[in-house]
Design goal:
- It is a single chain.
- By secondary structure, the protein is mainly α.
- The protein is 76% helix and 0% strand.
Length: 94
């Protein structure tokens, strides 16, 4: 009985996410911002591809910051999860 309720709840959540996703897509108005980016990409960045221009030129420092945060998180998780038993050295050459 518990699995049946779980499946019903998961199905309801999935259906609601799909409904909200399609309703947002229909009502989305990008306005002038998208046209400005498309028109001024080549003159400001000399990049033909607009996505490349936004990611690497306009948001370059933001992307660098995100990679630093990701690296720091990986270092933190590996420091927490490493094995640190006293008296036992993990060295295969001894």
């Amino acid at each position: 009985m518990g699995k049946k309720i779980t499946y019903i709840i998961l199905f309801a959540l999935l259906a609601s996410f799909i409904y909200v996703g399609f309703s947002i897509e229909e009502n989305r108005d990008l306005g002038d911002a998208s046209q400005i980016i498309l028109n001024e990409t080549i003159s400001k960045t000399s990049a033909i591809n607009s996505v490349t221009a936004v990611v690497f030129d306009f948001r370059g420092y933001d992307t660098l910051g995100e990679s630093i945060v990701l690296f720091t998180a990986i270092c933190g998780v590996s420091a927490v999860l490493r094995s640190n038993k006293k008296g036992k050295v993990n060295n295969k050459y001894e």
